Amino acid sequence: MAITKNVRMLMVNDADTAALSLATGSEVATLPLTNVQLPSNSRTFRSLDIAQVQIVMTWQNPVLLSGVALNRINVSDGATWRVEVFSDVAMTTLIHDSLVLQAVQQKNLGELEFLIDPLVSAVVSMKITACDYWFESGIAQAVRITIIDVNNANGFIDIGRIFAGRALQPKINFSYGHKSGWISQTEKRRTAGGSVHAKKKARPRKLSFSLKYLDELDRPHFYNAIQRVGDDTTWYISMFPGVGGQKERQYAMSCMFEILPEIDGAFYNNFKADFTIREA
Q1: Buried b (16+ CB within 10 A) or exposed e, 124-149
Q2: Residue 5: helix, strand or coil by DSSP?
Q3: Which of 231, 234, 244, 260 has its Cβ near the most Cβ atoms within 10 Å?
Q4: Percentage of the chain with pLDDT > 70?
Q5: Three-class SS of residue 144?
Q6: What pLDDT was estimated at residue 2?
Q7: Element of type H or E holding 201
Q8: Contact predicate 211/178, CB 8 Å
Q9: What is the per-residue DSSP string for 149-190?
């Protein structure tokens, strides 16, 4: 599929079935590389080699790939990464190369705070972020990911999850009326004196949008992917891929379905589905 700026979803995660290895760098014994195949935010992969870490994924049988994402990665604003996709396990035939990319999304020119932000400034200062790379679909058997973060103040690189697979994209993008927000999990208590105390908890993001113009070529791909992941499997979404800046990062995340979509046959050769998802 040709690249467009329509919403992209990595629902079926082929990274979970890949054979993983470190070409450069080492892993902390208690936080091995295989942790990136587990849906657990507390069990991450960790390497102390911030100068360079190279992760290799290989598949015995060819897979169709058009996207790679790293979720919950603790890199500095100056970190870089590179994704190389190969058609063979021996990694002799390169079919896609991202070249060196900024691992942390940078603000667009119009988003910079005049006289406050440097000309190159990260979208938000945060300990954990995500990065993704999209490309035209191709048959692959290996992916090599290179991360360099010599200025990492923590002295180590953590990765929570790796997503890789075929990015689902509708021919016609989601409709106007989409919503983005947060799920409050705060516990509040009022004292006898009238004060309100709150216990801080994580505020996962939530998204809702509608795909109202799926045709018969779109429908089976979305139907099969939704049936496969259900509402108990994490997947990755980018609602505004390629636009850059804060908008792209704020609308991209690892997620789960809150409610499984129903595919509605609206009229001839037209189907629609409502998506409600929450950050995982």
Answers
A1: eeeeebbbbbbbebbebbbbbbbbbb
A2: coil
A3: 234
A4: 91
A5: strand
A6: 60
A7: none
A8: no
A9: -TT-TTSSEEEEEEEEEPPB--SSPPPTT-EEEE----EEEE
10 vs 185: which has the higher pLDDT: 10
Task: List Cβ neighbours of 126 (8 Å cut-off, separation of 6 or more).
Answer: none
List the chain domain ranges: 8-165, 179-279
Choice between 247 and 84, residue whose per-residue pLDDT is larger: 84
Q: How do the residues of the chain divide into helix, strand and coil, expressed in percent and rounded to 5? A: 10, 45, 45
Residue 119 has pLDDT above 80, yes or no: no
pLDDT score of 109: 56
271 token code pair: 């189907």
**Size of the chain, expressed as the number of residues it contains:** 280
Q: Which residue type occupies 186?
A: T
Spatial separation of the C-alpha atoms in residues 218 and 214, rounded to whole Å: 6
Question: First vs last Cα of the chain: how many Å apart?
Answer: 27
Nearest to 108 by CA among 253, 251, 249: 249
Distance CA 84, CA 93 (A): 10
Q: 3-class SS at 68?
A: strand
User: What is the average pLDDT score of the chain?
Assistant: 89
Q: Cα(96)–Cα(94) distance, rounded to whole angstroms?
A: 6
The amino acid sitting at 51 is: A
Phi-psi region of 17 (alpha: psi -120 to 50; beta: other; left: phi over 0): alpha
* DSSP per-residue string spanning 96-143: EE--SEESSPBPPGGGS-TTTS-SS-BSS--S-EEEEEEEEEEEEEEE
Instruction: Tokens for 34, please give them.
Output: 């295989």
Amino acid at 143: V
8-165: CATH architecture: Sandwich (2.60)
206 confidence band (pLDDT: 50, 70, 90): very high
